[in-house]
User: Which sequence fits this backbone?
């Protein structure tokens, strides 16, 4: 039997990591302290995103927030320390990340849950999500859920992702990390926001610097009544 060409030529194919649930990978990262690197690397983009979202919220005397995919809770803590924030809740499907969040912030409000089934006790004025959406096989379903059941009628949401088609350096991540990811171009993300029912959609590249195409930031309003 003829050997495959690659074997006959002595070419070794790089081994792909076995595909694992993202929640398991992030729990491993939390145990290894890699969550601190994620916080540092995403701080600039999240800063831009929160500034835009708070400007969109306006001068509300007291507002509530949810961080969808909160990791170790660093954005939750940042929100809670922001003027006007009455409460901030973090939800994540990674047991390791939620354990870390609760250890760092014992009085914080953190939920270990699947974002596709979790339901807040009360709708929020603001929903924030950084580096989460593309880990879901159907991001539109999650966006729709947030639009219809998480946000108040006049609420604001801001989403950030680094894995998208135009960011070429991110296209190897599914193989590099061993996690299934949804790889969409910017235009598809924009259309998904529209299909989910969001209003006043605005997108931009946040924290662009040499070697980084920038975080695709997406600011939206809750669906029109």
Assistant:
């Amino acid at each position: 039997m003829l050997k495959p060409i690659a074997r006959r030529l002595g070419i070794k194919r790089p081994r792909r990591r076995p595909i694992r649930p993202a929640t398991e990978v992030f729990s491993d990262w939390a145990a290894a302290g890699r969550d601190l690197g994620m916080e540092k690397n995403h701080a600039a983009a999240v800063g831009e995103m929160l500034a835009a979202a708070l400007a969109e919220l306006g001068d509300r005397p007291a507002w509530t927030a949810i961080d969808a995919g909160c990791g170790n809770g660093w954005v939750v803590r940042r929100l809670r320390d922001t003027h006007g924030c009455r409460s901030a809740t973090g939800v994540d499907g990674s047991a390791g990340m939620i354990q870390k969040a609760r250890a760092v912030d014992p009085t914080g409000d953190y939920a270990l849950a699947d974002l596709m089934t979790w339901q807040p006790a009360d709708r929020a004025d603001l929903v924030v999500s950084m580096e989460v959406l593309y880990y879901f096989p159907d991001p539109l379903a999650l966006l729709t859920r947030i639009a219809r059941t998480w946000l108040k009628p006049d609420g604001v949401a801001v989403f950030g992702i680094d894995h998208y088609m135009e960011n070429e350096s991110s296209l190897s991540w599914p193989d590099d990390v061993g996690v299934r990811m949804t790889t969409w171009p910017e235009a598809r993300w924009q259309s998904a926001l529209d299909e989910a029912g969001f209003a006043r959609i605005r997108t931009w590249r946040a924290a662009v610097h040499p070697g980084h195409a920038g975080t695709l930031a997406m600011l939206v309003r809750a669906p029109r009544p």
Observations:
- The beta strands are 63-68, 85-92, 109-112, 124-130, 151-161, 199-206, 215-221.
- Residues 1-9 have pLDDT under 50 and may be disordered.
